[in-house]
Amino acid sequence: MMLRKRFDELIENAATAVFVFMFIVTALQVILRFVFQRPLMWTEEAARFLYVWLTFLGAAVIMRDNEHITIDFLVKRLPSKLQLALSLCIQGAIIVYAVVVFMGSLIMIRINWDAPASTMPNVVTMAHVYLALPVGMTLIIYYVLRSLPAQVRALFGKTPSKAARLEEVGGR
Fold first, then answer.
1. Which of 6, 104, 164, 171 has the most Cβ atoms closer than 10 angstroms to its Cβ?
2. 115-147: per-residue pLDDT in tens?
3. pTM of the predicted protein model
4. C-alpha torsion sign, points 133, 136, 142, 145
5. In Å, what is the CA distance from 2 to each residue of 55, 96, 111?
6. Residue 53 lies in domain
């Protein structure tokens, strides 16, 4: 349990660090462009690349916390066991999607391994940007798989109430 907590903190801290660095690069870009009329050419591209990384790290954290946006007005009208079964089906679809994106991203990394970023050619290749996808998808798969045992127990177990079952799987 302690290792799991540390891993979760590591991922959150990485996402936070990427956000802070993206904020600093963007602020630097704005200040240099509009105050000093001397923009740095690489800051816009760096901010975009950091945003890609932030998107996939953030998606993993949101998946872990079960905080993705959902439209559940119909699902909430279903019996609780059916809600849990539907949730398991959705988790399976997420895993399939993440595996497909993971596999496609490996192809993109291979294709762009030596493709330099236009404003940072000696520092960053496009493969560094595409690497965010397999990292993010791996984390998403890990978090979905980590939540499955609780969902299966809630579906097939003898949990006393609907609220307890939904709380166990991270619902509200």
1. 171
2. 988 888 788 999 999 999 999 999 999 999 999
3. 0.85
4. negative
5. 26, 29, 39
6. 2-168
